[in-house]
Amino acid sequence: MKTIHYEMIRYVIGGICTTLVNLGVFHTLRYYIGFEMQTANISSIIIAIIFAFLINKKFVFHAETKETIWKEFFRFTGMRGLSLCTEVLGMQLFTLTSVSDMTAKILLQIIVIGMNYIISKYYVFKKQEDN
């Protein structure tokens, strides 16, 4: 039980850092460089996914598997595709209802963080069972 508690704390810290990367890149691309909303959104998500993989593998789940890092990375990024779709569709829906794009981006992070924890813990970085 204690391990799960510390894992959750590490996940929250990693999630906050990943969210800051996502929001920071989005804000920079959208407001300083002038990217279109969804181009900035998708670009920021991709960068955040790469960052999240590294953080989750080493810091959160301490994943040491027999698989190659590439197999794990592709499983991680494949499942994060669900997050990307959730965020892209959510951004579109929120902004259609006159919610600002930055507010929509922040609100969607709450949904995405929960989804990503479940996917990472039980699918991507699941512990190897001792035989």
List the helices and strands and how they pair.
Layout: H1 2-33, H2 37-60, H3 69-96, H4 101-124
Q: How much beta, percentage-wise?
A: under 5%
Structural shape: elongated
Number of strands: 0
Q: Low-confidence segments, ≥5 residues, pLDDT <50?
A: none
Can you summarize the main beta sheet? none
The Cα radius of gyration reads 16 Å
Number of distinct helices: 4
Mean pLDDT: 86
What proportion of the residues is helical, as a percent range?
over 70%
Q: What's the N-to-C terminus distance?
A: 22 Å
Q: Structural class given helices, strands, pairing?
A: mainly alpha
Order of helices and strands: HHHH
Describe the structure.
Helix 1 packs antiparallel against helix 4 and helix 3 runs antiparallel to helix 4 (101-124). The longest helix is centred in the first third of the chain and has 32 residues, at 2-33. The protein starts with a helix and ends in a 7-residue tail after the last helix. It contains four helices and no strands. The model has no long low-confidence stretch (mean pLDDT 86). The chain has 131 residues and is mainly alpha-helical. The radius of gyration is 16 Å and the shape is elongated.
